């Protein structure tokens, strides 16, 4: 239907725009303090970028990508996540030649995945995220976690729980996967079809299955197979988090769904009256830059779902309220007064005051009704009789008090009122 949004998408309507804007402003503010610079990448990329970067065997690439041929016969894909595109841009623009580490962020980045729409997870969704390139120390892992928590807390979200894990590096992970497959082999008949499909191409993802998790409580832990370097990195992360006063739990089942992760992985969950929701996830990807054609540089970052944040705000009752639409609404009476009213509106806006006047040729009575409907706190009445005395009337819509003031003083008076 022409008047219905496609399944799995939603409109950001004027009544909720302020909430999106606040989340974006919080993201920019927190990242600015930590020295991150903003990056924006295309909505679509060459399909090979995600096949190589995200992993050809992942559920994202196998089942969830919006992939199509363009008019030149090239395979392109609407990006299903933010990191691969940022790495591509980092390599293409030779940002690795700049002083390192390179710290980047994005706000309300649109992503697309074909999956069953559900609360807080749509087919078109948006993410805040950060990426740090060229920082191998666990202090970088701790910093991105701190940034994520700061952004969430700035939105008033409480009940946050951080869970961390290490999935090692390719060297120590191979031994773990062999042990895990040996453990899973005899359990496969009792596991779901998706788990059976993952057994050969991505056995660690079986641990993340919501349907079968309860059957695998005694599965071997990756933490028992970490090499010396990965173990030292994980221990360092824990020390940094403790030093920063960040509470955490260790969850060996966190594996994340993308192949590029190495060492640190983490999730941040928000408790709500309707249950727990994952609002942020991330980790380290030390081989991804090189895999996509760049130099051998480590990376670490996170992705944070904006729709999930909005849902948590609703469930926790901390959604921000919109500011009044106008600092002053100008009501006019008479043709000459309308001209003067237009001049006054322009003058108010030039001085940083939100202002408007009636553009629907309503009667004076109807203009007041409209001002009341839009919850205008103050109305400036411009009428020909007062203009003959170089004056206007200022009405407080909350208490109905009205006073005549000099036309030349009205801007300063409204500025003072706004600052109260």
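^ structure tokens above, recovered residues below v
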């Amino acid at each position: 239907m022409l008047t219905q949004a496609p399944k799995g998408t939603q409109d950001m309507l004027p009544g909720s725009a302020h909430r999106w804007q606040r989340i974006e402003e919080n993201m920019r503010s927190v990242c600015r303090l930590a020295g991150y610079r903003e990056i924006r990448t295309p909505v679509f990329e060459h399909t090979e970028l995600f096949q190589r970067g995200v992993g050809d065997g992942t559920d994202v690439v196998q089942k969830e990508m919006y992939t199509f041929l363009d008019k030149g016969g090239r395979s392109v894909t609407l990006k299903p996540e933010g990191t691969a595109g940022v790495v591509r841009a980092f390599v293409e623009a030779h940002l690795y030649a700049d002083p390192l580490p390179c710290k980047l962020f994005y706000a309300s980045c649109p992503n697309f995945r074909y999956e069953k729409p559900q609360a807080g997870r749509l087919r078109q969704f948006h993410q805040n995220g950060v990426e740090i390139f060229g920082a191998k120390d666990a202090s970088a892992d701790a910093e991105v976690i701190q940034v994520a928590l700061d952004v969430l807390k700035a939105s008033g979200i409480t009940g946050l729980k951080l869970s961390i894990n290490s999935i090692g590096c390719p060297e120590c992970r191979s031994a773990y996967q062999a042990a895990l497959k040996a453990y899973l082999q005899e359990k496969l008949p009792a596991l779901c079809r998706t788990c059976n499909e993952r057994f050969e191409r991505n056995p660690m993802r079986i641990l993340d299955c919501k349907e079968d998790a309860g059957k695998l409580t005694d599965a071997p832990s990756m933490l028992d197979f970490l090499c010396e370097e990965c173990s030292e990195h994980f221990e360092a992360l824990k020390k940094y988090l403790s030093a920063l006063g960040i509470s955490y739990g260790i969850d060996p089942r966190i594996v994340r769904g993308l192949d590029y992760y190495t060492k640190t992985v983490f999730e941040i969950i928000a408790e709500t009256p309707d249950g727990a929701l994952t609002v942020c996830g991330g980790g380290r990807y030390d081989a991804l830059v090189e895999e996509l054609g760049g130099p051998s540089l480590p990376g670490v970052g996170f992705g944070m779902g904006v729709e999930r944040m909005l849902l948590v705000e609703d469930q926790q009752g901390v959604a921000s309220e919109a500011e009044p639409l106008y600092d002053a609404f100008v009501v006019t009476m008479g043709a000459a007064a309308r001209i003067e009213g237009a001049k006054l509106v322009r003058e108010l806006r030039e001085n940083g005051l939100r202002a408007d006047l009636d553009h629907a040729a309503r009667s004076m009575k109807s203009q007041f009704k409209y001002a009341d409907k839009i919850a205008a706190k103050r109305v400036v009445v411009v009428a020909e009789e007062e203009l003959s005395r170089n004056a206007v009337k200022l009405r407080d819509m909350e208490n109905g008090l009205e006073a005549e003031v000099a036309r030349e003083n009205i801007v300063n008076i409204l500025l003072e009122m706004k600052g109260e």
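The CA atoms of residues 131 and 301 lie 4 Å apart.
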